[in-house]
Amino acid sequence: MLKIALPILLASVTTPILGVVDTGVVGQIPEPEPIAAVGVGAVILSAVYWVFGFLRMGTTGLTSQAVGQGNRAEVAALLTRSLMIGLAGGGVFILIQPLIYWGALEVSPASAEVDDMARGYMMIRIWSAPAVISIYGITGWLIAQERGRAVLALQLWMNGVNIVLDLVFVLGFGWGVEGVAIATFIAEWSGLAMGLWLCRAAFRHPCWRDWARVFDRVKLKRMAVVNTDIMIRSLLLQAIFVSFLLYGGRYGDVTLAANQVLLQFLHVTGYAMDGFAFAAEALVGQAFGARAVARLRRAALLATFWAMVAALIMTLGFWLLGPWLIDTMTRAPEVREAARTYLPWMIAAPLMQIGLVMLDGIFIGATRSADMRNMMALAAACYLLAVWLLTPALGNHGLWLALHVSFAARGLSLLARYPSLERAALRV
């Protein structure tokens, strides 16, 4: 478990560290607007791209089950399908980019200055959409084969390039928000090139271009069903986070910037536990494909145990280092003060996320996508109800509490569905 999880954990942690660096670099400008603009732009694009987040999760589940069944030809064909979906999906986003900007910024409650900066940021980054979405598929394919070190190498390369260019373009050249966007654009295309190189062994197998197999109707139908369910689940999840950020803008640019700073803590938490969730995806998927229920249960329990250890470390870290991290990420005094006010919500977040992150990994490995879709819908409904009930009296504190309500609803509802997952393994 640790052999698989630790490289992926290190790879996952580099992603929110990049968000921290992005925020920290523009935070050296002693005004809240650049931080808020990068936050709004990055969240909007992440939400748009993560419409195709199903590609990472669906590819992991389907590929790991093919590995468990010993079907190497299908493993190669799945890589080709994933790359085709990724390139096509990114091309669509480039074509419809005016609609994306209009729709997102129309509902944004941020100031006109923040909206203008966010638009400029997105107009640069959108051109790397094909690379970003294709990397989702490559990552899922590598995870399914327990290639954690390859995932780590890919993330270190891409995020390392991004961080170096952030420092050069923003602090060195003074390009501001646009410099952050250009750095990310270059890093994402270089990441796709790195990912293809890591998958080079698959391209030596003739099945990657066996078009009859790649376009097999039964396989495509199954992939479509699994991916559609996960896409709906991802849309609902992103709707929660986007509405959280945008709703927080109703309390002013300072609160919006403070929420953006603290969301980086939340992303660090999720990504830190993702190493064990991804390991669960691979091992549960392989056990599910082999109809080995005992092996499946053992993988689920081991992954959850190590995720609990990681969550306790993160909670302690935020408690001890939270104020220092806030001060490092922003120089604006009013943003620092606001972020400290809401920091207790982030100290509690790692413990709230244990169950939902691990159960997501378990259900992805078993390709129980309908359960994931339905339980996310329940969590989104609980979140909206909590926002409606809590924010009038509690303001931004009520918004953070509503987010925690959604965490609890999602984790508990998936836990209730776990027995049916084990029964399904016997029927594969």
Outline the secondary-structure elements.
Elements: H1 2-26, H2 32-49, H3 54-68, H4 72-95, H5 97-106, H6 112-125, H7 129-144, H8 148-172, H9 176-198, H10 211-214, H11 217-248, H12 253-289, H13 293-329, H14 333-365, H15 369-394, H16 396-425
Helix pairs in contact: 1-2, 1-8, 1-12, 2-6, 2-11, 2-12, 3-4, 3-7, 3-11, 3-12, 4-7, 6-9, 7-9, 8-9, 11-15, 11-16, 12-13, 12-14, 13-14, 14-16, 15-16
Notable features of this structure?
mainly alpha, 428 residues
Notes on the structure:
With 428 residues, this protein is mainly alpha-helical. It has one domain (2-425). The protein contains 16 helices and no strands. α2 runs antiparallel to α11. It is globular. The two termini are 24 Å apart. The relative contact order is 0.14. The mean pLDDT is 85.
Binned strand content:
under 5%
The best one-word shape is: globular
Give the domain tally.
Answer: 1
Which H/E pattern describes the elements? HHHHHHHHHHHHHHHH
Head-to-tail CA distance between termini: 24 Å
What is the averaged pLDDT score? 85
Residues in helices, as a percent range: over 70%
For the biggest sheet, the summary is:
none
Q: Please state the structural category.
A: mainly alpha
How many E strands? 0
